[in-house]
Amino acid sequence: MRAEERSGWLLAAPYSAFLATFALYPIAFALVLVFLKWDLVTAPAFAGLDNVRLLAVDGRFWQAVVTMFVFLSIHIPLQIVTALGLALALNRPLALRAFWRAAFFLPVVISGAVVAILWSNLYATDVGLINHLLARFGVRPVSWLTDPVTAMPAIAVMVTWKNVGFYVIIYLAGLQYVPRSCQEAIEIEGATAWQRFRYLTLPSLLPQTLLVVTLSTINGFQLFIEPYVMTGGGPLRRTYSLVLYLYTNAFGYQKMGYAATIGVALALIIGVVVVLQRRLIGTADAQ
Amino acid sequence: MKTLGRVALYLALTLAALTFIYPFLWMASTTLKPPLEVGTLALVPDHMTLDNYRTMWARAPFGRALLNSALVATTITAAVLVFGSITAYAIARLRFRGRPALNAVTMAILLVPGQLTLIPLYTLIVQLGWIDTYAALIVPYLFNATAILMLRQFFLQIPQSLIDSARMDGMSELRILFTIFWPLSRPVLAIVAIFTFMGSWNEVLWPLLVVRDQHLMTLPQLLTVFALGGGAGTMGVSLASAMVLVVPVVVAYAFLQRYFIESMAGAGIKG
């Protein structure tokens, strides 16, 4: 064997072993678990299609699916608008540019657990900062996290706040590529600021918008610690996310097979949603 | 008109920046307030007190959790840098059968959502008997596909002549990697180090699954359990426990913000 061939094998061997154990085996075993009934105490039993059948008629699962779409339909548009707005504000000659960017990015570096604890206090009905600020404008206290109508939007706003700095960076990178010559030409033609934004900046940022939609969808489906800490999935299960439901099935009810089935379903849902989004935005681009 | 526009822009930016910074200032100040003052808007407490910190420190093992978090995050970061470099070097610079496959699998792994493997990975840890051990917190993170691909991308740009002449001098592949490649790769190593450390430092779902013993809990996990279990009792105590996790991060971020942004934004986009 050539020396290079041997070194290659040797250096790649630990990673290959790791991949097999902690990546490929769990993927394969996830598909096996779908057909098992297992509480981790007694031996696993073959359950045929029981888990899949249960999933199809499980109202709580489908309610969680709906909940995720409610969350995403608030979170994604809000994320695009705020990230794009802040990026446009930053994309001009500014004093303290690095400071503004760093300020917007700050919540991205903070643990989701801390953000959830902080915001449950900001949203607190009696002593929360938000209701205190609103009181100054004569608004009566809102029970943000305990009212079924406001709980999910409140969490969606918080998640948007936490991640916006990350998406600002994506848009800022995209804005570097809006051709200068086009900007000058369209200005000479007498276009208003709005027309410039609508017909030049926005279309040239389509790849970035697609990326923001995809990433915030994938991240959005991971929603867990926020409802876990802030609402426990309530009120009336309005904030019960899919990952929280998966977690409850595994650790509340010790149903490994069913929890894994939810995981597989969730992965399929994410895949389908992301592909559909790409198709839709792709056709919008072609027109 | 032009000046008016600029004033409006800076006003808007200040307002936006306050939206992101003020909650953290409010949090810091709330932890220093006695119970009667909590909920007031003032940032400077009338009667400053460290009672909230004393209470949380006495009620749960936060010092131990801080050490656990530091140990876990440091070990994972060191492993991802060392093992990741070794792997990336092999994939980028050594020709061997199986290399294209390894490369393809690494990229494919990134497309698999974590929710799919969460439960099987957990059952694996149970079967290995690793529940309530550091191994459960560390071993599944020893390699990181995003890090390997980033390092590989960088290693591909280093000239082959450097490797050839080093081999001529009889250097082993590992020595070439650590004495020639590493000094040239500091920027990418820093980027990998930051997002790996931050990812581990902030992680909460995985520890919640594999650790039940309070003395093995990482900081984000302990403060979640503490806040939920009602151990905190008051807002001041609960936020004080969160400060232990936040302060080191904010201090590091203040000095290295450019690298943090480049690292965490880059990893998110590639991952």
Question: What's this model, at a glance?
Answer:
The complex is a heterodimer of chains A (287) and B (271). Chain A has 287 residues and is an all-alpha fold.
Which secondary structure elements does this structure contain, and how are they paired or packed?
The complex is a heterodimer of chains A (287) and B (271).
Chain A lengths: L2 H31 L2 E2 L7 E2 L3 H8 L1 H32 L6 H13 L2 H11 L6 H8 L14 H25 L4 H9 L4 H12 L1 H15 L4 H6 L11 H11 L3 H31 L1
Antiparallel strand pairs in A: 1-2
Chain B lengths: L1 H30 L19 H9 L2 H32 L5 H11 L4 H14 L6 H5 L6 H11 L4 H9 L4 H12 L1 H17 L2 H6 L8 H10 L6 H36 L1
Helix pairs in contact in B: 1-13, 2-13, 3-7, 3-10, 3-12, 7-10, 10-13, 12-13
The amount of beta strand of chain A, in percent, is under 5%
State the end-to-end CA separation of chain B. 45 Å
The CATH superfamily label of chain A reads MetI-like
Number of domains of chain A: 1
Write the element-wise H/E pattern of chain B from the N-terminal end onward: HHHHHHHHHHHHH
How many strand units of chain B? 0
* C-alpha geometry of chain A: globular
Give the termini separation of chain A. Answer: 57 Å
Helix content of chain A: over 70%
Which oligomeric state applies? Answer: heterodimer
By CATH, the architecture of the largest domain in chain B is named: Orthogonal Bundle
Uncertain stretches of chain B: none
CATH fold title of chain A: MetI-like fold
Largest interface in this structure: A-B, 88 and 86 residues
Question: Mean pLDDT of chain B, rounded to whole units?
Answer: 92
Can you summarize the main beta sheet of chain A?
2 strands, antiparallel
Question: How many distinct helices of chain A?
Answer: 13
Q: Report Rg of chain B.
A: 23 Å
Structural class of chain B: mainly alpha
Helices and strands of chain A: which structural class?
mainly alpha
The CATH C-level name of chain A is Mainly Alpha
Notes on the protein architecture:
The complex is a heterodimer of chains A (287) and B (271). Chain A has 287 residues and is an all-alpha fold. Chain A has one domain: Orthogonal Bundle (MetI-like fold), CATH 1.10.3720. Chain A contains 13 helices and two strands, in the order αββαααααααααααα. Chain A has helices spanning 3-33, 50-57, 59-90, 97-109, 112-122, 129-136, 151-175, 180-188, 193-204, 206-220, 225-230, 242-252, 256-286; strands at residues 36-37, 45-46. Chain A starts with a helix and ends with a helix. By secondary structure, chain B is mainly α. In chain B, α1 crosses α13, α10 (186-202) packs across α13 (235-270) and α12 crosses α13 (235-270). Chain B is globular, with a radius of gyration of 23 Å. The mean pLDDT of chain B is 92. Chains A and B meet through α1, α4, α5, α6 and α7 of A and α1, α3, α4, α5 and α10 of B.
